[in-house]
Amino acid sequence: MSSEHSGVRPMVYASMFAALTAVGALIRIPIPVSPVPLTLQVFFVLLTGLVLGSRWGATGMAVYVMLGIIGFPVFSGGSSGMGVILGPAGGYLIGFVMGAFITGLTVEKLGRSMIVMVTAMVAGLMVIYAFGVLQLFIVADLPSIWGAVVIGVVPFLIGDMIKLVAAFAVAKRIGNIIERTEV
Fold first, then answer.
1. Which residues contact 158 (CB under 8 A, 6 or more apart)?
2. Disulfide-capable partner of 17 in 46, 60, 82, 144 (CB 3.0 to 4.6 Å)?
3. Is the pTM for the entire model greater than 0.70?
């Protein structure tokens, strides 16, 4: 590992992606059947994993979540605090860290072909959904996990597939920032 990979530049990129995720959270569309709104956060989470890799992608999303926990208005609609993390959407936010990690890890291990990148993002998205659905099921006191899937995944599938395609297109254009800046 070069000193650049563990230096200031990746930290700056991770912070930049945390900020972009916060911007994506400001675009909020309520879903009538779900307590979880539609935002652009998932686009930035997937892009972060593809571009920064597992370590720095997860770091960027951890920074994002920590900023929200300590009170910066970076969550959906400009909200913040532990109440959001403990609420119905909190599992998705925690899932962002692991989703970026899994997306990045998949491309690190298997390469950057189209099929690998798409698979990496689908895996990352599944991780986000898993964390989100589990917490939604518990917090919303739903009678079944299927009920949480119906209100916490189904309404978002089409939009998240569009975000996945957009993240792929952007990632192909900018490549892997960390590898490119190590030269």
1. none
2. 60
3. yes
